[in-house]
Write a structure and sequence with these properties.
By secondary structure, the chain is α/β, with parallel strands linked by helices. The protein has a five-stranded parallel sheet. Helix 4 packs parallel to helix 8. The relative contact order is 0.21.
């Protein structure tokens, strides 16, 4: 199954975005971009330079300098030529990524790069927290994955090996920050714009969710 179909996948952490996006991309035979990993890579670059994540101008400057070096299309994420896959999922980056991602200057740089990346390709899958509403608002298929908070924490703790209650608290804080930021906030499932389908993944497998999305693509072929 191939063709110029663009798929935008949004949702909070632990909802299954990355696993679903990679599987859909594999079926379509197109590339998949993890925009959350891009923001994490910028956060890692900021910390590596000893810059306070709250310093908006300096952080935006870092984003401008490194955005072209970030590769978040594979399981291994690279930044300025280095493999940062493990680093960007660590506690240090996790603690500051919401602050970095809420920076309007950073978002401007990243959105422009993400849109350019999509324009350069004959179809793609992109996942993150503002793809359906800001980055690819005219994507052929737009979905918002969400799940019960406890389930999301269980999934994320299983991936990272962290304490489930601590992970749940971290996810809750990330949700709060992402949904209340002034620039492109993450909407709740009930507040989605027209044309975006909400999919509750709480009691569903990755395969079931992927099948639903591929079914949405079918009529477009």
């Amino acid at each position: 199954m191939r063709g110029a179909v663009s798929v935008a996948i949004d949702g909070p952490g632990g909802a299954g975005k990355t696993s679903v996006a990679r599987a859909v991309a594999g079926i379509l035979g197109v590339e998949c971009l993890d925009t959350g990993a891009m923001y994490r890579a910028v956060a890692a670059a900021v910390l590596g330079r000893g810059i306070d994540p709250a310093q908006e101008a300096e952080v935006a400057g870092v984003a401008r300098r490194v955005v072209g070096t970030i590769d978040a299309t594979e399981r291994a994420v690279r930044l300025e030529g280095a493999d940062v896959t493990e680093e960007i999922r660590g506690t240090a980056v996790t603690a500051v990524v919401s602050t970095v991602a809420a920076n309007p200057g950073v978002r401007q740089v990243m959105v422009a790069r993400q849109q350019a990346w999509a324009a350069e390709r004959d179809g793609c899958v992109m996942e993150g927290r503002d793809i359906c509403t800001v980055v690819l608002p005219r994507a052929d298929v737009r979905v918002y994955l969400h799940a019960d908070a406890a389930v999301r924490a269980r999934r994320r703790s299983g991936e990272s090996g962290g304490n489930e209650s601590a992970v749940r608290a971290s996810l809750s804080e990330r949700d709060r920050l992402d949904s209340t930021r002034s620039h492109a906030p993450l909407p709740p499932p009930e507040g989605l714009p027209a044309g975006v389908r909400a999919i509750d993944t709480t009691h569903r497998t990755v395969e079931e969710v992927v099948a639903e999305i591929v079914g949405m693509i079918g009529p477009l072929r």
